[in-house]
Specification:
Layout lengths: L1 H14 L1 H4 L11 H4 L1 H14 L6 E7 L21 E5 L6 H14 L2 E7 H17 L7 H16 L1 H5 L3 E6 L7 H18 L4 E6 L9 H9 L2 E5 L7 H11 L9 E6 L14 H10 L7 E7 L14 H10 L6
Parallel strand pairs: 1-2, 1-8, 2-3, 3-4, 4-5, 5-6, 6-7, 7-8
């Protein structure tokens, strides 16, 4: 019996040897350009042709990084193909691999990349300095110091336009003109106006509280009039077409109706903010179609400010962005 059992075990080991033999397997999925080069080339040609047609625009926001990108939503080339514009926040010291994609994504997909020039970031820095002065028992900064500070910091941001070869800028101004903030605005917008004069053919999109920019000032008026789009930021209350209309009209109250070229900026849920804030991209996309004949403004499309957070969806990557693009431009299939 012992000899029978021994030979039975040996037979089993021999017959299973092919099953237990380790093999080298590839876990790297092929990209479309690798699995079907011709099909992918035709797709990209169609994408570029589509962007030369009249359609509702999609603008996506992403974060810049000085470190080597480690995830797909950190790459311009991994944003949805049908995005017309992508703007990069925190674009100082971009990693070389990300910076190189600014040109690549335009040549490959016709997507133009914009620099995000942010008033709020400078204001946070100024506030921190002022708080430190209070703690140290020092006097608060003067209006002249505030203007100089904002001018210097804005200049540092906007220099990245030429440094990395952006197609234009998104100028984000969310503020009012009370107290020293009038001088902050002067320092901030003064640099932007100078940049616009030096780069008249570059794209400029004005974002935020546009009603607080003095339209009667000749330089500011030109800035507003020359903006390709006026980006109105969704708030918690703007969850329906009626509420969006009210917000758009209020934000652009001092801009003549014919000059109101609106892109409505939404967000998507994220790990930090798991609940939807304001209108969803889908609701905003439906609003664009519904208000095409409005006499108060002209909706040109939508923006998703934190599009990078829409990548990680169980059902489909960029689920909300893709759905919104399809609603606004039904012929598009992402």
């Amino acid at each position: 019996m012992k000899r029978i059992l021994f030979f039975t075990i040996m037979l089993a080991l021999v017959s299973c040897s092919d099953w237990v033999k380790p093999e080298s397997l590839s876990y790297m999925p092929q990209r479309p350009s690798e699995s079907d080069p011709d099909g992918y080339a035709n797709h990209l040609a169609a994408v570029k042709a589509y962007k030369n047609t009249e359609h509702n625009v999609m603008i996506l926001g992403m974060l810049g990084t000085a470190d080597a990108p480690v995830s797909r939503p950190q790459h311009l080339m991994n944003m949805p193909d049908s995005a017309d514009f992508i703007y990069i926040k925190y674009a100082g010291n971009l990693h070389s691999s990300l910076a190189s994609e600014i040109r690549e994504v335009y040549e490959t997909k016709g997507t133009r990349t914009l620099l995000y020039v942010d008033f709020a970031v400078i204001e946070e820095e100024w506030t921190a300095l002022e708080d430190a002065k209070v703690d140290a028992g020092k006097p608060a900064g003067t209006a002249a110091e505030a203007e100089a500070f904002f001018k210097e910091k804005t200049q540092a941001q906007i220099e990245n336009f030429s440094k990395y070869g952006f197609a234009g800028v998104v100028v984000s101004f969310e503020g009012n003109t009370s107290g020293n903030r009038a001088y902050m605005q002067k320092g901030f917008l003064g640099v932007v106006c100078d940049w616009h004069k030096a780069n008249p053919d570059a794209i400029i999109i004005l974002r935020g509280t546009i009603r607080n920019i003095e339209y009667t000032d000749p330089e500011y008026k030109k800035l507003i009039d020359d903006s390709m789009y006026h980006m109105v930021v969704s708030t918690e209350g703007s969850t329906s077409a009626v509420e969006i209309n009210k917000q758009v009209t209020r934000i652009l109250s001092y801009v003549p109706e014919k000059q109101r070229r609106v892109v409505f900026e939404t967000t998507v849920p994220s790990v930090a903010t798991p609940e939807q804030t304001g209108a969803t991209p889908q609701v905003a996309a439906e609003w664009v179609l519904k208000e095409k004949n409005s006499s108060n403004f002209t909706p040109y499309g939508i923006s998703v400010g934190n599009a990078y957070d829409d990548y990680y969806r169980q059902e489909q990557i960029y689920k909300n962005v893709r759905a919104a693009i399809t609603i606004m431009n039904p012929v598009v299939t992402e």
